[in-house]
Sequence to fold (226 residues):
Amino acid sequence: GNSVTQMEGPVTLSEEAFLTINCTYTATGYPSLFWYVQYPGEGLQLLLKATKADDKGSNKGFEATYRKETTSFHLEKGSVQVSDSAVYFCALKETSGSRLTFGEGTQLTVNP
Amino acid sequence: KAGVTQTPRYLIKTRGQQVTLSCSPISGHRSVSWYQQTPGQGLQFLFEYFSETQRNKGNFPGRFSGRQFSNSRSEMNVSTLELGDSALYLCASSLPNRDTGELFFGEGSRLTVL
Fold:
């Protein structure tokens, strides 16, 4: 079956540091890939997505590139802010249906 | 445009009881999905409804059930509650073109089973 593996957290960074959260996946076919973010006390929000190999998703300074050869979709940001503190989830969607398979989530804390 | 609304936000039940959670999707969204979020298991898919029909179901026991009404509102029910059912239950809705893959999540209903 499908699965998503994220780097273990929690991750603690200082403001303006570079962020990478690793995500690899196992899936049949050609899934779409997503990063969702969950701020404290809130539901999940879509951060960015990529629907085919070599696509780059970007939003709010975050980027991730769909790498089919390494089955990866790593999340990066060049300079994190305190307001980026949240839990980040990598997810995939099969080509049919709306069901998402999520990774375990990575807690990010950014200190001033 | 109002977001996904879930009620109640918090509830406490005891083992053996049953619970019903409600979800109102974004206006115009016809697909509703439910997920269970726990610290140990992460986010796990429960089921998905589209136009009042369940079209996908996760690997949960039959104690977990759901339904969708003609106005796209959805409910999920958990019977004979167990301690392990304590979790945040998230509802998500999506656009009629479900291939976009974007889900819009509510804030969740946090269930505590004592």
